[in-house]
Amino acid sequence: MTFFTELWDELLPVGRDAGSGGYRRYSWTEADAGCRAWAERTAAGLGMQAGYDGNGNLWAWWRPPGSAGPAVVTGSHLDSVPDGGAFDGPLGVISGFAAIGKLRAAGFRPARPVAVAAFTEEEGARFGVACLGSRLLTGAIDPDAARALRDAAGISLAGAMSAAGRDPALLGRDDELLASLGAYVELHVEQGSALAGLDAAVGVAEGIWAHGRWRLDFAGRADHAGTIRLADRRDPMLPYAKTVLAARQAAADLGGLATFGKVQAVPGGVNAISSAVHAWLDARAPDEATLLAVLDQVVDAATQASAAHQVRLSVSRESASPLVTFDPELAARLVGVLDREGITAPVLPTGAGHDAGVLAARLPAAMLFVRNPTGVSHSPAEHADLADCEAGVAALAAVLADLAGS
Ligand code: HGY
Ligand code: MN
Ligand code: MN
User: Fold this and answer.
1) Residues 175 and 103 in one domain
2) What is the rounded distance in angstroms from the CA atom of residue 382 to the CA atom of residue 86?
3) For atom 6 of ligand 1, which residue has the closest CA?
4) pLDDT band at residue 138 using 50, 70 and 90 as cut-offs
5) Which of 14, 46, 259, 339 could, after both became Cys, cross-link 34 (CB 3.0–4.6 A)?
6) Number of domains forming the structure of the chain
7) Nearest CA among 320, 259, 256, 260 for reference residue 284
8) Domain check: are 308 and 205 in the same one?
C-alpha cells in the first residue's frame, strides 16, 4: 500500500454506477459532493488548507497564495462523462496529493505556495460547456451565461450551486487569484496510446487540438408510423442520420475528428414519427481552419438533408476551445527535470481538452501524461497500470520540487 493506492482506493467507489462500472460524477450532485469531501479530507490529512474560489473550484494550499512568490499549482478535475473511467481527472488530483505527500516525507519545503486544484464541470457532462470552472476563473465565459446553463432536467447552474450551498453570484473571472499563480502543471491519463507505442510511462503535452461542441436541432412533424405515406413524411430522423454519416466523412476527408455521441428523439415513441431530433456534434482538428472546414461540411450536409425532407434545422455552438500550444519553455523544463530523473518523456499533442488548455491563456501551463495501455478513455474500460501511475507521481513530485524549490 502506498499513499497513492490509499488515496485511489478511498475515491474509487464514489459516484461509480454498479450496472455499468462507469462513473456518473456530475458537478453539484451528491457524487460530486462525495468527491469534494474526499479532497477536503485528503488536504486536511496533509496539513493543507482547502477552500473554494467563487466558481466552485477547489484549491488545497500547501503554503497560502501570495505568501512567497507566484504559486505552483497542480491538479485536474473530479467530474466525469456519463459512465466515464476512473482515471480521467481523478488521476491528476490524486497524483497531486500523492506527490505532495512524497515531497513532505522527503523533508522538502517549498520556497513558494503550492496547491492542488480540482476544477468543476471540466467534462461539461451536466451543463454542456467543457472546462466550465476554469473558463469562469479566466473570464473565458460570461458568468450570466454560465448561471443560466441548464441540465437535462432544466435545473440551472445557479440553482444547482445554490442547492449545494454555494453562491452563484460569486461566479466570474478572478484576476487576483490568477495573479498569484506562476505555473499550472496537470497530470492526466493519456487519452490515446502513443506512450504505449513509445514504451514510455510518462509524457509531456505539446498542445491541444482546436475543438468544440455544436447542437443541431432537426424540427419535423410528428405523425403515425403506420399510416402516413413515406412521401408525406417530415421525419427529422432522416436528415439526422445523413448528418452523422456526413460528419464521419468530413473528418476522414479533412484529417479531423467528428462525433455524434448524444442524441434525443422527441417524444421518442416507437410507433411515431419524431417531432424533433436534438443532436450534439463534437468536432476536433489539428488547427482552426481544418476545424472550421469540418464544421462547414457537416452543416452543409445537414442543411441539404433537412431541406430534402422539409425539416427545419438550427445549429448553435455550445462550447469552443481554440488550438492550444503549451508554454514551450515550461514543457522543455519538465522534459529536462524528468531526464535528470532518468525518465525519457516524449512530447505529444492531444485531441482531448483539459483545464490546463484553458489556463494556458492566462499563465504558463503544462501537462504530464501517464501511459494508457489501450488508449481507451471516456469508458469504464479506461485503465492505467499501477506502476505507471506511481511513475507519474514520482515525475510530478520531481517537477513540483523543481518549480517550487526556489
Ligand atoms: O472532451 C474532452 O476532450 C475532455 O475530456 N473534456
Ligand atoms: Mn474527459
Ligand atoms: Mn479529463
Assistant:
1) yes
2) 7
3) 123
4) very high
5) 14
6) 2
7) 256
8) no
